[in-house]
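INTERNAL AUDIT FORM
Audit reference: QA-55
Scope: verify that the stored structure record matches its stored sequence.
Auditor: D.O.
Record contents follow.
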Amino acid sequence: MNLIDLTALEAHLAPYAARASASRGRRYVEPAPEARTAFQRDRDRIIHSAAFRRLEYKTQVFVNHEGDLFRTRLTHSLEVAQIGRSIARNLRVNEDLVEAISLAHDLGHTPFGHAGQDALNECMRAYGGFEHNLQSLAVVDELEECYAGFNGLNLTFETREGILKHCSRENAQRLGEVGERFLRAEQPTLEAQIANFADEIAYNNHDIDDGVRSGLLAVEQLDELELWRIHHRQVLAHWPNLSGRRLVHETIRRIINALIVDLIAATTLQLQDHALASPDAVRRAPALVGHSANMAAQARQLKQFLFKNLYRHYQVMRMTNKAQRVITGLFDAFKHDHRLLPPQYQSQQPELQPRLIAHYIAGMTDRYALKEYRRLFVVDEG
């Protein structure tokens, strides 16, 4: 017996929204949940997973031990989910699916953010490479060890598809049904498209906040950005004497709101133009979620600014270089002698060993990776 009425729960959804009642199902058949939808079950399983808890100690831009108030992969994922749900509600699509995808999208991220991913990808170049979207899918499909009847979390097809944002044709063929849209040049659900944009809105704006908080970005620098300049001046027009943290926060929250409102308006126009009658029609259509041309240009300017002034700041680059040395050192040590690995990551089949090493390293938090590095390379004289 299902304690919730799915028909009533889904009555408000638009024809093009994904419905839990029409899900393509799970890899392993399970009884339907009794007091929640299939997508709500996905969300709950993600939140209770070990990989989700580890996000608390994984870098966004600043390494976890550099400060208690900087964003981590966990706080970032929560912000993405909040933004995604707001957009989904206004577009009458499935909030629960957007939330599940948003919370899971970084489960496979390495320690030390993109620096860690780039280093691990280089280490794995001869063995198929490393990509955190594929790793996130591996986490929910195989690597989590929670349930008696299967590996992974056994999520619905729709959540798994949304997690897989990018994929080569070679990997798409290997992944089966969940990779088919890359072979057919089709789009994912609107919910997956929304989660993707919510991710971008979240990290662009909280990276401004963290950059200013760290002292690596000055408020005066930000004035060259049209998006910042518009909303910064609006705040000062209302509160001429406002300064410091309150001024930065007031400006950023207005930028986030403007991006969300613009995305909803521009996407609504796209949906009206295409008159979509089903989720399958979404798949056959071009990408439908996006900003207006003017807002898209402002968002691109913001991304370029952050790349130049924050991500390539010499202090961030110093930590990036250090992180890459840690990841490369760990991979090389484990590849040279797999007996240094925990038993569950050792294989008697040499062709499988590099991927197991990548799984082990990708699952580390920042501080655990540093601890492992010290264990392997630092002689303790005390």
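Auditor finding: record pair retrieved intact. The chain has 19 helices and no strands.
Action required: none
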